[in-house]
């Protein structure tokens, strides 16, 4: 099992709620039920423990170990109350499965009654229930991932046109640092769901984040971040209304910035944005007009001119 798979299992144990994986159809007995009846119930239902109820209230647990004790004493006619355990550990149905695992390890019990907010028995959970719950959740996650991969693979295959593209558009407000990076984050999430190669996604994420931050810092009326996804390439287009760039060539130099001091004090405007975009893109074009704004386009090719998937390690390893 890979570290990623182990991490996924750990995440699922924390995410799963006891109410989602517990056994709801619970076989119960009362304190006056005979141990002979307990033996028959355990055999017929293939279970190793039974909650003991008084009305709707949980009063004890009778286990297969208790049954063995009664057999050794030849006391199958004795009532359950003589052998049941009244030292109870119970769980709430909205609690995470990881807490049940902790109780199983600490208390060395094989089952835990599950009660609702009013203290009524609503189910029972065992380590086997948790295992089955995790496996089911893993299967669901795998199926969802396969569906996403299938959709991504066939996204353009069934569309008949000379050129097919998926256009993703995000609005970027000016000066809103509380939302800065949201557009690029949403674009990254969408590309992951489309099944785009993680290395390509990482390059697009850097390009889109730097472009988005330039809009937030330098524009006067905000702008837009647009991504065009096609079978052959991903193009990121960023345009804004603002003062424009006086000298594009100079602005491309690492460390050059026109950001004011208060922006720099916030940790932005280090002058690496355009340089970072250029290093991650296969093509980059910048057009800027004084007092009108700037248009930036960065392109990543998914296939070489010969039609093969690109494997540019100098770019994809960034």
Count all strands and give the number.
10
The helix/strand series, from N terminus to C terminus, equals: HHHEEHEHEEHEHHEEHHHEEH
Shape: elongated
Number of helices: 12
Percent range for β-strand residues = 15-25%
List the domain count as a whole number. Answer: 2
Radius of gyration over alpha carbons?
31 Å
Rounded to the nearest angstrom, the distance between the terminal CA atoms is 27 Å
Helix and strand content put the structural class at: alpha+beta
Low-confidence stretches: 262-271
Question: Do you know the CATH topology of the largest domain?
Answer: Heat Shock Protein 90
Mean pLDDT: 80
Q: Which CATH class of the largest domain is shown?
A: Alpha Beta
Protein described:
The structure is a single chain. This protein has 318 residues and is α+β, with helices and mostly antiparallel strands. It folds into two domains: 3-132, CBS-domain; 166-316, Histidine kinase-like ATPase, C-terminal domain (Heat Shock Protein 90, 2-Layer Sandwich), CATH 3.30.565.10. The chain contains twelve helices and ten strands. A five-stranded antiparallel beta sheet has the order 6-7-8-10-9, covered by helices on one side. The two termini are 27 Å apart. Residues 262-271 have low confidence and may be disordered.
Set down the secondary structure blueprint.
Elements: H1 3-15, H2 18-21, H3 35-45, E1 49-54, E2 57-63, H4 64-72, E3 91-92, H5 97-107, E4 112-115, E5 121-125, H6 127-153, E6 166-172, H7 182-193, H8 198-218, E7 223-229, E8 233-240, H9 248-251, H10 261-265, H11 273-280, E9 283-289, E10 293-301, H12 313-316
Parallel strand pairs: 3-4
Antiparallel strand pairs: 1-2, 4-5, 6-7, 7-8, 8-10, 9-10
Helix pairs in contact: 1-6, 7-8, 8-11
């Amino acid at each position: 099992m890979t570290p990623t798979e182990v991490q996924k299992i750990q995440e699922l144990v924390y995410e799963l709620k006891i109410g989602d994986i517990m056994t709801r159809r619970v076989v119960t007995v009362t304190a006056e039920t005979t141990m002979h009846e307990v033996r028959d119930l355990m055999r017929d239902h293939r279970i190793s423990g039974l909650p003991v109820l008084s009305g709707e209230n949980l009063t004890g647990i009778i286990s297969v170990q208790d049954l063995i004790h009664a057999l050794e004493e030849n006391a199958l006619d004795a009532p359950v109350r003589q052998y049941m355990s009244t030292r109870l550990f119970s769980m709430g149905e909205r609690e995470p499965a990881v807490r049940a695992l902790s109780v199983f390890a600490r208390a060395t019990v094989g089952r835990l009654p599950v009660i609702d907010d009013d203290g009524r028995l609503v189910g029972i959970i065992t380590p086997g229930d948790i295992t089955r719950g995790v496996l089911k959740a893993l299967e669901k996650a795998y199926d969802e991932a396969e569906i996403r991969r299938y959709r991504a693979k066939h996204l353009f295959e069934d569309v008949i046109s000379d050129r097919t593209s998926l256009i993703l558009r995000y609005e970027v407000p000016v000066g809103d640092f509380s939302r800065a990076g949201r557009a690029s984050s949403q674009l990254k999430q969408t590309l992951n769901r489309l099944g785009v190669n993680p290395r390509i996604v990482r390059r697009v994420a850097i390009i889109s984040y730097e472009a988005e931050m330039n809009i937030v810092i330098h524009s006067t009326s905000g702008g837009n971040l647009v991504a065009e996804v096609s079978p052959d390439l991903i193009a990121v287009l960023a345009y804004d209304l603002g003062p424009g760039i006086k000298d594009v060539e100079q602005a491309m130099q690492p460390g050059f910035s026109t950001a004011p001091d208060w922006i720099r004090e916030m940790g932005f405007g280090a002058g690496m944005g355009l340089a970072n975009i250029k290093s991650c893109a296969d093509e980059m074009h910048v057009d800027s007009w004084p007092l009108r704004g700037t248009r930036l386009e960065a392109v990543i090719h998914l296939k070489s001119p010969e039609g093969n998937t690109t494997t540019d390690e100098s770019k994809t390893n960034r």
